[in-house]
């Protein structure tokens, strides 16, 4: 339980770090404004369509279920907000990946003593970073479909099925949150996707606490616009603490050659 709570505390620690080191905000401002623009577009489109769909579902309920209409509406609205927030975070992580990578580098240099020889932020390098981020998103989507689809089938089991499906869905979402926010330091090591999953698994139960708190933060509308850089900071601090004795990437602290994700 202590390790679980320690992992859950990292977003709060990250908030303190960002407050004490305002120079780090130069890597946050641009993606936050991009997130706001994307967020306005997504919320304006998805929420309007979603509320119309919810009204249609409620209107189609048989009369004998009318007494739970308000509860069903509330649950569907919560699901809609979480789903919209999830889509927003997916866009935010990809669009902001070059900036968040630099943020994570500066954090690791400050807290682990690692010195990075990062490539300059040219158009080509930024495009390459975004391409790798897109590939990473595709692999996470495959993971979500591979595990998520069988998890949904648990709802067919009477009584306990829904509870098992909900628990499985939360565990999967928390795992994806860990992959999102541990990725900058792991990607600098050019780890394969399976090795990134291994980092999450080996860090249990601390990574479980971290993932659940981050999942909660990115599911809250508006707050999730700022939650992504906060959780990126928290993930890097988590990595630095876990690998505090690591002072180099390939013997001299420079970045390794790109490899398979």
Model description:
It comes from Roseiflexus castenholzii (strain DSM 13941 / HLO8). This protein has 261 residues and is an all-alpha fold. The chain has one domain (2-242). The chain is built from ten helices and no strands. The chain is globular, with a radius of gyration of 20 Å. The model is unreliable at 245-260 (pLDDT under 50).
The shape, in one word, is: globular
Number of β-strand runs? 0
Structural class, from secondary structure content? Answer: mainly alpha
Termini distance? 32 Å
Q: Can you tell me the residue ranges where pLDDT is under 50 for at least 5 consecutive residues?
A: 245-260
| Main pleated-sheet profile | none
Helix % is: over 70%
Strand content: under 5%
Quick recap:
The chain is built from ten helices and no strands. By secondary structure, the chain is mainly α.
Blueprint of the fold:
Elements: H1 2-8, H2 10-20, H3 29-59, H4 69-95, H5 97-112, H6 123-153, H7 160-188, H8 193-202, H9 206-218, H10 224-242
Task: Sum up the structure in keywords.
CysZ/EI24; high-affinity sulfate:proton symporter activity; mainly alpha; 261 residues; Sulfate transporter CysZ; globular; sulfate transport
